[in-house]
Design a protein that fits this description.
The protein is α/β, with parallel strands linked by helices. The chain contains 10 helices and 10 strands.
Length: about 300
Amino acid sequence: MDAGTAGQGRKRHVSDLPADAADDPKITVREFVKEFPTKAGPLLALDHVSLDVPRGQFFVIVGPSGCGKTTLLRILAGLEEPTQGSVVFSQAPPGRPGNSMIFQGDSIFPWMTVWDNAAYGLKMRGVAAAELREVVGHYLDKTGLTRFKDRYPHQLSGGMKQRVSIARAFANDPDIMLMDEPFSALDEQNKTLLQEELLRIWDETHKTVVFITHSVDEAVTLGDRIMVMTAQPGRIKAMVDVPFERPRDVLQLRGRPAYAEIVYDIWQHLRDEVNRSDQQPASDSMETSRRRAKPVL
């Protein structure tokens, strides 16, 4: 599902700023701490994480398993509270959801057609029928789903289901897009195709995106700025700017020497953290189980 409703029902740690506040970032996170209770005592998942995400930036987070990436994203979505700290969003335009979230696993409604899944958020907001047809038709066309609009999820491949999730999220026109490893379960060919489609749609909308991935290649391909996290407890280890111009051609970009240099630089930051995370099976299993949990509709 996309979590647009979570963005509207914001919790106490979230305050809003005027949409036209000059030079204010879209997302401001200050001193996030998150602990989870365990039989052995509190488990520190996030340790004093602070960051700013400017409006319209494609912001990517990479880090080893169990470092708190998904926990951070769920707090931004309003699905969880931090133990300590605050997040401030600049106010969304009237009538639009604060955010939509695309999850790693299959999250579209199995009893709805492709069209009805893509239209769900707009229907919930009471958008006029003519506008709904125009918007949904546009994003089904962008994601190559128009001729499959009457099919049900069980008739689709994994890659096509993720296209439906992307179409639904963008059609709902959220202020912020939150994406939790949406392509991780796909084969390389489908992953590359969906990365290209996501870039084309993003070039059209320039939405603020926070995107989680384990893939350094994916991070450099998609992102404007990349945050590298430490092994649990999750802290910021490095911020890496991606200087490549937009629009981007995925295959051409990956053939450039500068691309390989940035990928290598990020892997240098990650190497020790991945080795450390291998010694922390408890935190890894916790994050894995949280990913698999079904969100509340």
